[in-house]
Amino acid sequence: MIDKVYATPEAALDGLLFDGMTIMCGGFGLAGNPESLIPEIRKSGVSGLTIISNNAGADGFGLWMLLESRQIGKMISSYVGENKLFEQQYLSGELELELNPQGTLAERIRAGGAGIPAFYTRTGVGTLVAEGKPVDVFDGDEYVRETWLRADLAIVKAWRADLAGNLMFRKTARNFNPNMATAARVTVAEIEEIVPEGALNADCIHTPGIYVDRIVLSTINEKRIEKRTTRPRGSD
């Protein structure tokens, strides 16, 4: 069996990074971010990156680190709110942005992993999203043609993995991670717990190990709350 386990996040990315590459990065808000791998990409100094991710982290955390170091040249995203640095770089022309409806972004990634180069959706018809894209009519309704997304590297975060690289994600941290793991030339997964081969229930595996090239134990597991909303306790 191929040894997929690497000693450190730095080692897990060794030989994979280069200027101008495209990286898929799992996560939704601050849930399921590969928070141990992102700092290593920053340390590497690679630049001109195209990042495919739902959003770009939050102030001081996640992909924000690569924005702050000016290593990202283009974001392919769904959500740009609540990240002032993202907003500033886009409005100043430093950062190119390809904005996608969230469902379309997810389907473009899934299509990349499934080998489907294009598909049609009604989402975005008649809006800026459809500009420059083919529009066809099916059963009397217009649909815009969207294309797959693929990457040189996918970095994802999973809850548990076995030595073969089979992955389980926990609750909302599942988000974009499973689809991204299938849609890149190389997939590196950081894991909270690595278990022996055969220890995972086959029915509970979200991403088969055939899609995963390297795994490494997470060194950062902060599980931050992006926005805390509370209410006063009742008098009783």
UniProtKB/TrEMBL annotation:
UniProt-recorded Gene Ontology molecular function terms: transferase activity
Gene3D superfamilies named among the record's database cross-references: Glutaconate Coenzyme A-transferase
SMART domains found in the cross-reference section: CoA_trans
Keyword Transmembrane appears in the UniProt entry: no
Keyword set, alphabetical order: Transferase
UniProt-listed InterPro entries: 3-oxoacid_CoA-transf_A (IPR012792), CoA_trans_fam_I (IPR004165), NagB/RpiA_transferase-like (IPR037171)
UniProt-listed PANTHER family: ACETATE COA-TRANSFERASE SUBUNIT ALPHA, KETOACID-COENZYME A TRANSFERASE
UniProt protein name: CoA transferase subunit A
Native source organism of the sequence: Sphingomonas telluris
